[in-house]
Amino acid sequence: MVWNMAPLPFRAVLPSLGLMVLLTTHRTAAAPSEELAVELERLRVARGVPALAAGIVRSNNVLAISATGFRKQGIDVPATTSDLWHVGSLTKSMTATAMAVLVAEGRLRWDSTLGEVFPETAPRMHPDWRTVTLSQLLRHRGGAPDQEWLQREGLWSKIWEHPGTPLRQRVDWMESVVTRPPATQPGSRYVYSNTGYVLAGRMLEQVSGEPWETWIRRRVFLPLAMESAGFGVPARPRYIDQPWGHRWKAGVPEPVPPGTDADNPSGLGPAGTVHLTLGDLLRYGAFHADAGRRLAEGTPGAGRVLGPSDFQALHEAPAGESDAFGWRVVRRDWGGGTVLTHTGSNTQWFAVLWVAPAMDVAIAAVTNIGDDDGRSASKATDEAVAWLVRRHLVPRP
Fold first, then answer.
1. Hey, which end of the chain has fewer CB within 10 Å, N or C?
2. 149: left (phi > 0), else alpha (psi -120 to 50), else beta?
3. What's the CA gap between 204 and 138, in Å, rounded?
4. 8 A C-beta contact, residue 54 and residue 381
């Protein structure tokens, strides 16, 4: 059985743009598909993950959404589609979307440099950092370091032990990084870097005058009616009011109590600390799917938040590359050609999001455990997505 829900108009104001925007969106309380629930439970048991949830939306209609399993391994409290899921690096495209708002307002450019945005810090920067652009950081080509570099330089432990607010962590994080030489020559090659998104987040904060958390909630999450979106692990210590993250221990999921060790440092926010419901994740994916379809058709329509050129920058990879801003750009027949995707994990959760603009489709799957050597979490979510593709997008003989 497939449950459908008609689009629901939602009005929101983008204050600094001075526009009343009509967003075509959907309710997230659609009854789960019984057919999907059976398949998710089969996959969950086969892969041994504590909980598994997935859904698909097409043209703002929820075709199927369901959750199975448990919030905490060993405790009989079922996971639901209304639960909050940590989505790790899926945050990156959300940060890029927040940047696009500033670009649309003319307050920032995709080629704005660190030296331009931080003139007071520029004299202390290593010279190679001064010309690094926002675009390079968002495509992992700005010379920002990977995790091994941070550990080798002794910076990761300092970040973990930092007692300050997320904003203060990012200020000090940036200072520690840009006063050293870049890990690679900026623009020379791809290096996946959370630090690059921290630096981009600092550019947003410097220009907007607000912490990244405040800006992205006010200018992206609330206008898109993503009211569940927040930051860090969703559950409270000693409670099972939301799913807990898990690690693998001797092949068995081990719950990780909510607290300091349950997530990355809060200063990592722009690179990967968002949590939200599966419905709101689908809502976000549907927003990008609809915008991408309108961009391809040349019909911006009444529902757009950003202009066509903004989405072109967000969704398109340069020739010969596969990275847009927070998205991997690939081709899939089931998606009608070019599709966008990314995964996210803080090692205790795993999430994947697919956006197919040509089909006006978004598909998401989440679980509350990271991968082990057998890649159980990513396999479970990939198999859930594959089933939804076969069931809803591939014509049956």
1. C
2. alpha
3. 12
4. yes
For 130-150, b where at least 16 C-beta lie within 10 A, e where not — what string?
bbbbbbbbbbbbbbbbbeebb
pLDDT digits (tens, 9 = 90+) for 159-177: 999 999 999 999 999 999 9
Please give the share of the chain, as a percent, with pLDDT higher than 70.
89
Alpha helices in 23-146 (DSSP H): 34-47, 91-104, 114-117, 127-130, 134-138
pLDDT of residue 330: 96
H or E stretch at 310: helix 308-315
Q: What whole-number distance in Å separates Cα of residue 196 and Cα of residue 185?
A: 13
Report phi then psi at 114, rounded to 5.
Answer: -60, -40
Query: What pTM was estimated for this model as a whole?
Result: 0.90
The total of other beta-carbon atoms located within 10 Å of residue 300's CB is 14
- Rounded Cα distance between 63 and 356, Å, is 15
**Domains, the chain, ordered by start:** 8-92+218-392 (3.40.710.10), 94-210 (3.40.710.10)
d(CA 393, CA 191): 34
Going 237 to 352 to 264 to 94, the CA torsion angle's sign is negative
> What DSSP line would sit under 163-179, residue for residue?
-S-HHHHHHHHHHHHHT
Maximum CA extent, the chain: 66
Residues in Cβ contact with 194 at an 8 Å cutoff, skipping those fewer than 6 apart: 89, 147, 264, 268, 271, 272
